[in-house]
Amino acid sequence: MRNKIILASASPRRKELLQRISASFEVVVSGVDESKAEGVKEIALLKARAVASKHPDAVVIGADTIVELDGRILGKPKDKAQAVLMLMSLSGRENFVTTGLAVIFPGGRTITDTVTTVVKMKKYSLKEAQRYVDDFLPLDKAGAYGIQEMDEVFIDSIRGDYDNVVGLPVKRLSEILSMSA
C-alpha cells in the first residue's frame, strides 16, 4: 500500500511542482520558526519533522530555498524598495539558488539533500527592475525574483535544475521518493 504524501510548505509553486510527480498529496504548513535553524537543509528538516510528528504514517516533504550572491544570502525582501535593491545587485551577475530537501518516511527514516542551480542574470535597468517588482510583487520570494515570471529581459542562462529555482527540485525529489521501497 502506498503511503500518504504530505508537503510541509505553504508555497503554491512547490505545490504545483509536486503535482508533476504525485497525483495525490496533502499540504500541511509546518508553522515552524525558521530562525531556529541554519541552512536550507536544516530548515527543510525542521519543517518536515514538525509535520511528521503529527502524521507519522505519511511521507513528509520539507523544502527551503535561498538565493546566494557573493557568499551573501538574499532572503525574502521586506518591501518593494528592498526588492528593487536585491534585483539591482543581481543585474549582470551569477547567483546560486539552493534548495534543501528533507523527506521523512513512516518509521522515521529520513533523507536530506541540497540542489544548487546557477542563474546568470542579464544586465538590466533600474526601471526594468522597478517594473518587475510592481508587476509581480516578489516579496514572498528569496532574492526578490521568481524565475517563472521572468523573461528574456532578465535571464541570461541557467546551469542546473530549473525547477529548483522555482522552489522544488522535482527530479531529485522523485529519486528520493523512489527510495521508499
What are the defining features of this structure?
single chain, 181 residues, alpha/beta, Maf protein, seven-stranded mixed beta sheet, 7 strands, elongated
- State mean pLDDT (0 to 100 scale): 93
Q: Which fold name is given in CATH as the topology? A: Maf protein
Shape: elongated
Helix content: 25-40%
Order of H and E elements: EHEHEEHEEHEHH
C-alpha-based Rg, rounded: 17 Å
Sheet bearing the most strands, described? 7 strands, mixed
Please, how many domains? Answer: 1
CATH top level is Alpha Beta
CATH-derived architecture: Alpha-Beta Complex
DSSP summary, beta strand count:
7
**N- to C-terminal distance:** 11 Å
> Strand-residue fraction?
25-35%
Structural class: alpha/beta
What do you see in this structure?
With 181 residues, the protein is an alpha/beta fold. It has one domain: Maf protein. 30% of the residues lie in helices and 26% in strands. The chain has six helices and seven strands. Strands 1, 2, 3, 4, 5, 6 and 7 form a seven-stranded mixed sheet that branches. Strand 1, helix 1 and strand 2 form a beta-alpha-beta unit. Helix 3 crosses helix 4. The longest helix is centred in the N-terminal third of the chain and has 13 residues. The protein is elongated. The model has no long low-confidence stretch (mean pLDDT 93).
